[in-house]
Write a structure and sequence with these properties.
Blueprint lengths: L17 E2 L1 E2 L16 E4 L1 E2 L1 H4 L22 E2 L1 E3 H5 L15 H17 L1
Antiparallel strand pairs: 1-4, 2-5, 3-6
Length: 116
């Protein structure tokens, strides 16, 4: 979870067997602390977050990974999060988009409707 955006909420359900995927923009980032240092353990996500329309999206930012089967790379926890056992807390997928991003989208829609 991003250290700089405190309004983001993680899924935190029991992780399953599927490995979480991240886009090129988030590649190498720890889903808990945003560290780029010493990736250690693969991220496991819950069954609800791994199928359907969520299965081909980045677990951190929600961007699409593409249509190809091998698109996106595996997400990893950093060494410190593994040592502190934060990787055992649950599924790390971000389930909301945050108020700053929602405000930006609302402002974008409202300015487009005013221009018509």
């Amino acid at each position: 979870m991003s250290r700089h955006q405190y309004d983001l909420v993680q899924c935190m359900k029991q992780p399953g067997t599927r490995v979480g995927k991240v886009c090129q923009q988030c590649d190498g980032r720890c889903p808990i602390c945003d560290s780029y240092v010493k990736p250690t353990a693969k991220v496991r996500i819950c069954d609800g977050c791994s199928f359907g329309h969520l299965g081909d999206k980045c677990i951190l930012c929600g961007n699409g990974l593409g249509r190809e089967e091998g698109s996106g790379s595996a997400a990893y926890y950093c060494l410190e999060c593994v040592r502190q056992e934060k990787h055992r807390e649950g599924c790390p997928r971000i389930v909301n988009i945050g108020s700053s991003k929602a405000d930006m989208m609302f402002k974008k829609v409202s300015t487009n409707s005013l221009q018509r």
